[in-house]
Amino acid sequence: MELKDLTSAYTLANGIAIPAVGYGTFRTPATVARQAVKTAIEVGYRHIDTAAVYENEEAVGQGIKDSGIDRDSIFLTSKLWNTERGYDKTIAAFEASLKRLQTTYLDLYLIHWPANQKQFGDQAAALNAETWRALEDLYKQRKVKAIGLSNFMPHHVAELLKTAKIRPQVDQIEVHPGWTHQEEIKKLQAMGILVEAWAPLGGQGATVMENETIKQIATAHGKTPAQVVLRWEIQQEVLPLPKSVHEHRMRENADVFDFTLSPAEMGKIAALPNMGGQCADPDEVDY
Ligand SMILES: NC(=O)c1ccc[n+]([C@@H]2O[C@H](COP(=O)([O-])OP(=O)(O)OC[C@H]3O[C@@H](n4cnc5c(N)ncnc54)[C@H](OP(=O)(O)O)[C@@H]3O)[C@@H](O)[C@H]2O)c1
Fold first, then answer.
1. One-character DSSP codes across the chain
2. How far is the CA of 19 from the centre of ligand 1 (A)?
3. pLDDT on residue 44
4. Residues of the chain with pLDDT under 50
């Protein structure tokens, strides 16, 4: 499918359109998020990604209101934090997010991290199943247009599918050069799941954008390293969620639809070594 601009969308397995580049808000403090989200919408972003744990949902909701754009023209995602797993707590956490976001529905709600065996032993799979059952009910009640996962590797998804009645439509995982998850992306896509890239530019502490190979490819196309990295993700049909609080970078990160990386360039970027970032293994995290 040809993507032309920030309003170009993929179609999720349940028929819902999801704009193909989102706007991230992790580490955007509430004091900044209101104006940043409004600016992002003015720049043209129509897909906003937040989470309860970012502690900026209220400001994100206010920024959407300030933009003057109809709520229906925005694709809004939030996520269930790890302390709220389980059926009842999930329903309550969802309602609290809606309230903070000052909206009556979400476009996408994600389980932020799978409960892992390291923390929950044999109970991990049952806890994920119960949490998912709550998302299914929210979906059936039309309080959310699509439901999905975050940081679930294919083996977590396979476990969940043993009990799921509704298949997850999205999985948001860490993807950037040096932390490519290429096999996992292919497996998730083969399951009919749209993959979103968090930390698409490498996130905090990464040196992805200073990499010489990426810089050379950028120069060859008359683009910036950030644009090349986002394009590399888009060409894998992975949906990036770049975060910036600066308008010029919001514009830069949106200007990724007028060039194409060759298969050789795609391969060179995929082969780059780890350049830092969060590089989190969902089976090893303690949160
Ligand atoms: N599901 C999860 O577990 C999870 C985890 C992490 C993130 N996320 C989501 O994914 C989004 C993106 O991840 P992220 O925020 O960690 O990292 P990111 O988008 O890869 O990188 C953001 C960093 O890059 C800088 N930046 C942005 N555009 C740039 C450009 N064109 N040139 C140079 N630097 C640029 C930003 O600084 P400035 O803001 O100062 O411009 C910020 O420091 C998050 O905001 C969040 O919505 C989800």
1. ----STT-EEE-TTS-EEESS-EE-TT--HHHHHHHHHHHHHHT--EEE--GGGT-HHHHHHHHHHHT--GGGSEEEEEE-GGG-SHHHHHHHHHHHHHHHT-S-EEEEEESS---HHHHGGGHHHHHHHHHHHHHHHHHTTSEEEEEEES--HHHHHHHHTT-SS---EEEEE-BTTB--HHHHHHHHHTTPEEEEESTT--TT--GGG-HHHHHHHHHHT--HHHHHHHHHHTTT-EE----SSHHHHHHHH--SS----HHHHHHHHTPPP--S----TTT---
2. 18
3. 98
4. none
Give the pLDDT of residue 1. 67
Residue 10 bears catalytic tag = no
How far, in Å, from the CA of 26 to the mean position of ligand 1? 7
C-alpha of residue 161 to centroid of ligand 1, in Å: 30
* Catalytic one of 23, 45, 54, 109: 54
Ligand 1 atom 21: residue of nearest CA: 203
- Domains annotated for the chain, with CATH where assigned, are 9-270 (3.20.20.100)
